[in-house]
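Quick one, tokens below:
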């Protein structure tokens, strides 16, 4: 397989007998049927004995196994993807956890709708004064629908530039002010106004807020009555190149299967910045000037006079099921109180690779690393001579790459009550930088979990560092945010960024190389040259944080003024009643 040469060169410096699943049938993989023997059990990665302690060897074994080609990129609701979920359940069993899923199982089924665009039959283009631009799917634009219907269309839908597509009353901000979007298509920038105007009083400077998430933008466009929504991609504010958009939104897409009607635009899309510039110029508008104006208070929508969108989308639909995997360690003193550990097991599966022959998106860093970390922490606790005072629940969630769907399902259908969940810790995309001076906190300044982390980190000679790439909005791009939006205090502490010998520049090199060369690409695969000593140390540190909270009587909260504080206060008041 192809190696991620840039990252590799930088980093080179430094059990139970569960049965196998059957292949997917025409209706999709039956996630409940995980005990049907397969004819070729030897084809699946196997298990090996691991230590009670958190070790580099165990970390290497689990990351390498979860990113093995035989799991084919761990796509949710696929036979190979669900087999990787079963492998995680087997690991939980082997280390001494008890099942915490539904009906005494290791699993919480997550109902999904898989939608696959028929690219040959489907079409999407923008016309200016009646002349089509000739946009190409892939190089110029990607598009899809989340509406669970086989055919949707928009015709001659007028385009309106709505800045960042944000309605934020707390900031006095309304990018849709004065315009009726019914039947129209919203054209908007990626990220939020704080990125381009970090000195402004609104938003959070360069640190992206939830308003910068593409999920929010499509939701808001629907609330405004728009028929379509187009996000303009730019690499710097998006924090990833166009190739990531192209690969992530090609192939099958998932949404949660829900009852009732959903508020969705008919056509969701991204457009590359180059054809976007041509579009603006063709209607006599200066893209750069408008983008700058959009970051200032008082911006009002700008119709792209003479420009309209036409689309006809044909989508194949299947109702499928994937699995969250859940294990538990019972507390000896307060077993009904739980500390939550979470990581997503899924990745992108196999799909077209536009830059090479390797078609497997292994997801070694994203997120075999985080899944390994929660298993390592759970194993050390489960094999301890002294059980924790409170219970530990570990949930490896599915469909994170499809919009945090597995964790959203868990947040709405928790396996333990949220008001009995003391706090949660999310692990996602740990980089193999090696030993560092610091621990990076994504969304720094959010909760009372941070002083606990800082105190434990000081014992390791480490200190806390705010996310050095806060403009990427990682706090709103990983699973902890779905629990946070319910009120549960969550901490997303990442691997450090300042190498003990090579400093911050080295860490920044590794992070940038991964983000630009391997994130959501086949190059995100295990490399035996990785220095995993930082993984080991950081996971040991996080174990100590989890264990200290589990052995305490503390109930951390969000800081005063945090957007989730009121939700937690209400939740805890109900618990006390």
């Amino acid at each position: 397989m192809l190696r991620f040469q840039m990252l590799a060169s930088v980093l080179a410096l430094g059990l139970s007998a569960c049965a196998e699943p059957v292949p997917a049938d025409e209706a999709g993989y039956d996630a409940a049927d995980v005990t049907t023997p397969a004819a070729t059990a030897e084809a699946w990665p196997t298990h090996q004995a691991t230590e009670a302690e958190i070790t580099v060897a165990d970390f290497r074994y689990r990351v390498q196994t979860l990113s093995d080609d035989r799991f084919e990129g761990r796509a949710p609701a696929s036979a190979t993807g669900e087999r990787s979920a079963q492998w995680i359940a087997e690991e939980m069993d082997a280390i001494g956890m008890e099942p915490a899923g539904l009906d005494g199982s290791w699993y919480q089924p997550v109902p999904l709708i898989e939608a696959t665009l028929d690219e040959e039959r489907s079409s999407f283009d923008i016309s200016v004064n009646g002349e089509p631009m000739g946009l190409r799917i892939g190089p110029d634009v990607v598009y899809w629908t989340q509406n669970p219907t086989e055919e949707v269309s928009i015709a001659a839908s007028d385009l309106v530039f709505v800045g960042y597509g944000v309605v934020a009353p707390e900031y006095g901000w309304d990018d849709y002010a004065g315009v009726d979007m019914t039947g129209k298509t919203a054209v908007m920038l990626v990220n939020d106004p704080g990125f381009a105007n970090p000195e402004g009083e609104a938003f959070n400077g360069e640190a992206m807020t939830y308003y910068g998430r593409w999920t929010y933008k499509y939701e808001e466009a629907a609330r405004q009555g728009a028929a379509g929504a187009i996000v303009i991609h730019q690499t710097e504010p998006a924090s990833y190149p166009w190739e990531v958009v192209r690969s992530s939104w090609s192939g099958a897409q998932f949404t949660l299967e829900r009852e009732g009607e959903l508020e969705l635009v008919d056509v969701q899309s991204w457009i590359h910045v180059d054809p976007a510039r041509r579009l603006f110029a063709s209607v006599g508008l200066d893209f750069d000037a408008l983008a700058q104006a959009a970051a200032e208070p008082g911006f009002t929508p700008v119709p792209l006079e003479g420009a309209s969108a036409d689309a006809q989308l044909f989508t194949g639909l299947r109702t499928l099921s994937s699995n969250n995997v859940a294990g538990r360690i019972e507390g000896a003193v307060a077993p009904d109180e739980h500390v939550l550990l979470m990581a997503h097991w899924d990745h992108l599966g196999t799909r077209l690779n536009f830059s090479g022959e390797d078609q497997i998106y292994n997801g070694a860093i994203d997120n075999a690393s985080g899944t390994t970390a929660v298993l390592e922490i759970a194993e050390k606790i489960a094999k301890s001579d002294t059980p924790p005072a409170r219970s530990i629940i570990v949930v490896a969630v599915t469909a994170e790459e499809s919009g945090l769907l597995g964790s959203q399902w868990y947040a709405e259908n928790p396996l333990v009550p949220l008001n009995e969940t003391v706090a949660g810790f999310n692990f996602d995309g740990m980089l193999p930088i090696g030993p560092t001076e610091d621990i990076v906190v994504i969304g720094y300044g959010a909760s009372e979990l941070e002083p606990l982390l800082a105190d434990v980190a000081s014992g390791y000679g480490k200190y806390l560092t705010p996310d050095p790439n806060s403009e990427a909005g990682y706090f709103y791009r990983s699973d902890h945010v779905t629990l946070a939006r319910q009120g549960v205090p969550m901490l997303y502490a990442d691997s450090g960024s300042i190498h003990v010998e090579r400093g911050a520049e080295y860490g920044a090199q590794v992070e940038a190389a991964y983000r630009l060369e391997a994130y959501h690409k086949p190059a995100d695969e295990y490399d035996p040259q990785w220095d995993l000593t930082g993984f080991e140390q950081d996971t040991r540190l996080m174990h100590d944080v989890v264990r200290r909270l589990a052995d305490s009587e503390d109930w951390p909260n969000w800081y005063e003024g945090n957007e989730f504080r009121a939700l937690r206060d209400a939740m805890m008041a109900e618990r006390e009643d």
